[in-house]
Specification:
By secondary structure, the chain is mainly alpha-helical. Among the domains are: about 1-65, no CATH class; about 170-240, no CATH class. The chain has helices spanning about 1-20, 75-95, 100-110, 115-120, 130-145, 155-160, 165-185, 190-200, 205-210, 220-225, 230-240, 245-250; strands at about 30, 45-50, 50, 55, 60, 65. Strands 1-4 form a two-stranded parallel sheet. A two-stranded antiparallel sheet has the order 2-3. It has a two-stranded antiparallel ribbon with strand order 5-6. Helix 2 (about 75-95) runs parallel beside helix 5. The longest helix is centred in the first third of the chain and has 22 residues, at about 75-95.
């Protein structure tokens, strides 16, 4: 088999190199990975000094995870799994912390749960809409735990809690990160890719004639149409979200303490007393108004 011969040659080269340089080889941690097209070939048998090498679909080396599958699904799912474990632990802790101590609950959630989600921001514009929606939903799940809003949808949770949305955190992150990428010498390769993108979108006559192509050549037109760059997506997001930044914190109604001597101000009426957030249907009561200086929820 051709693959087995190539594998044997590779193992012999590895063995000679290790012997000549007196480098020990950890055979137990040596793994093989087979990358194929559509039809999966039969796995070849690979041995190193009569020790069989195991085939894996995922391998982590120096903090970088290499897989046989293209896409960000595995990376996202792994990070979200860590965030879910943290939220499950917070769920247990919050049983001992009453709802009126919501500030403490909020600090715990933002300190331990939010950083796991921020890890996903650097590659955000490479994700699909479904993946972005799943990440945003997980963040709202954390807010639901903090304010005891477990039966409400994500939009309602943002409005009631008056917290910054995940898009707000993404806006702050990419505002600073984009400025760094545009000026830092460490991001020279990123800047060159954007220059290549501009050249692809507006092809110059000199370079396509040097390859024997014409202006209306099928390859040139198709290449120009399919060229994409993440910086365009970042710029569009920053422009669109600039006017929407903090909309849930600013547009939601503001409720003041009863002893402040000031009246309620806002466009949303106070919620009647007896309203329980675990039941989406409010109970009618005209005796008193709920103090919205603290989040509502089951005590």
């Amino acid at each position: 088999m051709k693959l087995e011969k190539q594998a044997e040659t590779t193992m012999k080269i590895q063995e000679e190199y290790a012997n000549n340089n007196l480098l020990p080889v950890n055979v137990n941690k040596t793994k093989a990975m087979l990358v194929h097209d559509i039809v999966a070939p039969q796995y070849p048998k690979i041995k190193y000094k009569e020790n069989k090498i195991e085939f894996v679909k995922r391998f982590k080396y120096l903090g970088v995870e290499i897989t046989t599958k293209l896409g960000w699904g595995i990376y996202i799912e792994k990070r979200l799994k860590k965030a879910r474990k943290i939220f499950n632990a917070l769920r247990i802790i919050f049983t001992k912390i009453p709802i009126y101590l919501y500030k403490m609950r909020r600090k715990l959630c933002l300190a331990y749960g939010l950083p796991q989600i921020i890890w996903l921001f650097s590659c955000w514009f490479f994700y699909t809409e479904i993946q972005q929606r799943d990440i945003d939903h997980l963040y709202c799940s954390g807010l639901q735990l903090v304010y005891n809003l477990t039966q409400w949808d994500d939009l309602t949770v943002y409005i009631i809690t008056r917290e910054s949305s995940l898009s707000d955190y993404l806006f702050k992150y990419w505002t600073k990160f984009n400025a760094h990428l545009n000026k830092s010498p460490e991001a020279n390769l990123y800047q060159q890719t954007f220059s290549a993108y501009l050249a692809a979108k507006t092809p110059q006559r000199a370079w396509y004639l040097s390859m024997g192509l014409r202006k209306n050549d099928k390859y040139v037109v198709r290449f120009s149409k399919r060229a994409r760059h993440s910086k365009i997506d970042v710029s569009n997001f920053l422009i669109d979200h600039h006017q929407q930044y903090g909309r849930f914190r600013l547009d939601s109604a503001s409720f003041l303490a009863p002893d402040s001597g000031r009246k309620f101000r806002g466009s949303i009426r106070p919620v009647p007393d007896g309203f329980r957030l675990k039941n989406p249907t409010p109970r009618k009561s005209s005796e008193s108004k709920l103090n919205r200086s603290e989040p509502t929820g089951s005590q």
